[in-house]
Amino acid sequence: MRGRIVRIKRITIKNFKNVKNGTLLFENSKNSSKSSIVGLYGQNGSGKTALIDAISILQVILRGAAIPEIFTNYISVDSQRSTLQFEFEIYNSSRTEIYTIYYSFSIENEEFSDFIDGEISSSKIIVFNESLHYSYKSDNRIQRKIELINTDTAAVFEPKTKYDIFTNRNTEIDLDLIVAKKVSRASSKSFIFSVEFFKIIKENCQNKEYLFILDSLASYGKNELFIIDTQNSGLISLNVLPVSFKIKEGNKGTIGRIPIALNGTTIIPMSFLHVVKKMMNNMNIVLSQIIPNLTVSITELGTKIMKDNSEGCMIQLMSNRNGFEIPLQYESEGIKKIVSILNLLIAVYNTNSVTVAIDELDSGIFEYLLGEILSIISEKGKGQLIFTSHNLRPLETIDKRFIAFTTVNPDNRYIRMNNIKSNNNLRDMYYRDILLGGQSELLYDTTNNSAIAYAFIEAGEEIGT
């Protein structure tokens, strides 16, 4: 499919962090040339970050990487497993061919013992019950939803008819697939998107459509899906600027994330210096418009041999404003936040196939500027932007179809507001529904001001005030 575009259409989360059950639909525009934006709002601890964390796990799985150990704590305390379900659309730019992909999996903790320094009980995440289905629609063909792979079986996977197609009935590779499945489980990886599974099926499968589906999702996870979590802001507070980027160079593209020290120098490979310069020049085109007279530059401070014995370049980020140059570390947290994510916002604006998920997008950014940036992307952008926020300014600036809310009900965490007219102010409507209700679920656990004031007084007595 020429000009392939992959987008997340729907996510369902079960028993993950504080979300017992929650489904959020991301399809909010009939015009495929426009961006797909979903901003998630709600009170603290109501499941906003859980959505970004679920997408983070998806990214790790699609890349064939191991799920970090920290996610062992994300399974709901009263459940043995979490289940994440994702619905994707893969289509061409004219949307005349559309694949709808359904991928789900469960994760749970598996206890094990480490005898290296005595018997130590520990746990790791395992990925299991993976399921992959798809349907297809074009002008001259319709394929109803069919099951491609289901690993919830004693066999390697079912259905048997699809197993035979993937393996081309080559029984000599049965043992290799059994080993690959066991290795994936032991290493906290997906079996379907593991390097071992891909290698085997690419050498044997003759069905180009099945390979196209798997290749599209794997490529999406590696090259087109970007996550900016709260760790990003944490690094900035520690004087490290994690700059994420996606840059096209001729027929090739360069993607990645560079942690650049703010309170000193950073050594980068000499071969990568031109990429960093291009990234900064590209970013400055937009930066100078949203923050007048501000640009960011790189000062080269000499060369140094790196650990792999290759030549590296020592650089420092500088802020240039009104003819004066200072180290970027002395700029505000908001400006550093904008610099760290701006290249990805540029990619979302210009590229259909890019998805960027940002937790607490509003952190440190002036609310009016945030509203203007989101308004511009929503009106003329092309990619997919998913974000959480506490700042209600965007509720007044972007299309109401782009906004979702968390609820106080853990069994139904995500909703879109009902009965919103085109001339309604969504911010005012949100406040009204907090106070008076009117939605299918409560949006906020109301507080009692008198009780809070009394609690402050009571707490003050304990500290001798």
Strand and helix map with partners:
Elements: E1 5-16, E2 19-25, E3 36-41, H1 48-62, E4 81-91, E5 97-114, E6 120-138, E7 142-150, H2 160-167, H3 174-186, H4 195-204, H5 208-224, E8 225-228, H6 230-237, E9 240-249, E10 252-261, E11 266-269, H7 273-290, E12 294-305, E13 311-321, E14 324-327, H8 333-350, E15 355-358, H9 367-380, E16 384-389, E17 403-406, E18 414-415, H10 426-436, H11 449-462
Key phrases:
single chain; 465 residues; alpha+beta; six-stranded antiparallel β-sheet; six-stranded mixed β-sheet; 11 helices; 18 strands; 31% helix; globular
Task: Characterise this structure.
The termini are far apart. The model has no long low-confidence stretch (mean pLDDT 85). 31% of the residues lie in helices and 33% in strands. A hairpin with a 5-residue loop joins strand 5 (97-114) and strand 6 (120-138). The chain is an alpha+beta fold and 465 residues long. It is built from eleven helices and 18 strands. It has a six-stranded antiparallel sheet with strand order 2-1-4-5-6-7. A six-stranded mixed sheet has the order 8-15-16-3-17-18, with helices on both faces. Strands 11, 12, 13 and 14 form a four-stranded antiparallel sheet that branches.
